[in-house]
Specification:
40% helix; 219 residues; globular; single chain; mainly alpha
């Protein structure tokens, strides 16, 4: 889906229980960009590959368009007819449409919960495309984490990604912060032969497993 006025932005919409498009997404779904990139590369499907790049780039845009540089947990947008799924958003359209600047979304969940999915896809995008722009994006996110999430004890979730200093730290540290966020950030800057995607596959918690039967040789 492309938000109204932003054809260069590509999101994947949540469906409601009746299967209707809700013109909304959360950062959990940002894993799909890397998944599509990996599948498109192995299957030699340029259309899938291009969709993976577009989704990953648009998920990154939800980060670099906030005050903190961290991404919200969820967001929504106006469809090609400039209407929102929730009629209440149309009643309050002036406020939401003012908020719906680049990348064309308005935030519905303002907290940053240390989720790894956007960085996961940035990792795959760098490894598969070789374009250093993805390293630049990862470095921006790393700096934003240090500026907003760090404290004297560790790193924590923050309450509002679109407020100075995240408004408030939430005194919570998730295990996947270590297992995934830090691991993907490290691997984005490591030599590509470190856990090469030709010989290793990651499970959902970013633990690498050797590909059975030898290397795939596609990457």
């Amino acid at each position: 889906m492309h938000p109204y006025g932003f054809p260069e932005v590509t999101f994947l919409s949540i469906l409601d229980t009746d299967g209707a498009i809700t013109y909304s997404m959360d950062d959990f779904a940002c894993f799909a960009g890397g998944n599509l990139l990996l599948g498109g590369k192995y299957l030699d499907r340029q259309d899938i590959y291009d969709l993976g790049v577009a989704v990953t780039d648009s998920c990154h845009a939800t980060y670099n368009s906030t005050i903190t540089g961290l991404g919200p947990i969820s967001w929504a947008w106006y469809n090609s007819s400039n209407l929102a799924y929730d009629p209440l958003n149309d009643l309050d359209a002036a406020r939401h449409k003012k908020a719906a600047q680049y990348p064309g979304n308005f935030i519905t969940g303002f907290d940053w919960d240390q989720r790894p999915e956007p960085l996961e896809s940035i990792f795959y995008a760098y490894r598969i495309t070789g374009d250093p722009i993805w390293q630049d994006y990862a470095w921006e996110v790393f700096k934003a984490i240090n500026e907003t999430s760090a404290n004297a004890v560790a790193y924590t979730e923050v309450e509002n990604v679109d407020a100075p200093f995240g408004e408030q730290q939430l005194n919570n540290l998730e295990s996947f912060w270590f297992a995934e966020v830090l691991k993907y950030l490290y691997l984005i800057f490591a030599d590509p032969q470190v856990v090469s995607l030709d010989t290793w596959v990651f499970n959902t918690e970013a633990h690498p497993f050797l590909i059975q039967g030898g290397t795939c040789g596609a990457l």
